[in-house]
Specification:
The chain has 190 residues and is an all-alpha fold. The protein has 9 helices and no strands.
């Protein structure tokens, strides 16, 4: 088993256990057992449970780089597709669970919130901005900086839905979010 495969197995085991029982109630021994590895192997990969959590939250295991890849010759369509990919990820049951985990543990695990913001929010925001900047000025309905437009698009498509899911436990309606993507892109770009 390669180091990357070992890390992925440990991440999967930790994510499942943390989601089912909570971070504090899970031991490193239980994570190793669930991953089919020895505790020694686990500690050779991660120094402690805090490091495992930080690495899990900040890794490409959560949102692989390929998730950002969309293919369209039309820059407005590319943006629409990228927003749909974001909807799929951000509003997934898995991501909502990881958000709850990151929020609940961020006060006890220094740097966790910063890692989560940088790897998730920051990276996806950067990709949205890149997509918007590919769109010629003449196709933009609003004369706003790309950073502001990205925030508006994210907020309209994912922001409120994610907040509602985190606070109420209600599962977001992905089809409704897709319809919102189509509506806001059509209203913002020609």
């Amino acid at each position: 088993m390669t180091t990357q495969e070992r890390r992925a197995a440990l991440f999967a085991a930790a994510e499942a256990l943390f989601g089912a029982r909570g971070y504090d109630k899970v031991t490193m021994d239980e994570i190793a057992t669930a991953a089919g590895m020895s505790k020694r192997t686990l500690y050779q990969t991660f120094a402690d449970k805090n490091e495992l959590l930080r690495e899990l939250i900040g890794s490409s295991y959560i949102w692989p780089e390929k998730a950002f890849e969309v293919d369209s010759s039309d820059p407005v369509d590319e943006l629409r597709l990228r927003l749909r990919v974001m909807v799929d990820h951000v509003l997934s049951v898995r991501h909502i669970g990881l958000c709850r985990l990151a929020i609940s543990e961020s006060t006890k695990n220094q740097g966790l919130a910063d890692t989560f913001v940088a790897m998730g929010i920051g990276k996806s925001r950067e990709k949205l901005i890149q997509s918007i900047e590919r769109i010629p000025e003449k196709r933009r309905v609003l004369a706003l900086p790309s950073e502001i437009t990205a925030g508006m698009l994210y907020g309209a498509t994912c922001g409120l839905r994610l907040t509602r899911a985190l606070l109420t436990g209600a599962e977001p309606d992905i089809q409704d979010a897709y319809a919102t993507v189509d509506t806001v892109v059509a209203a913002t770009f020609k």
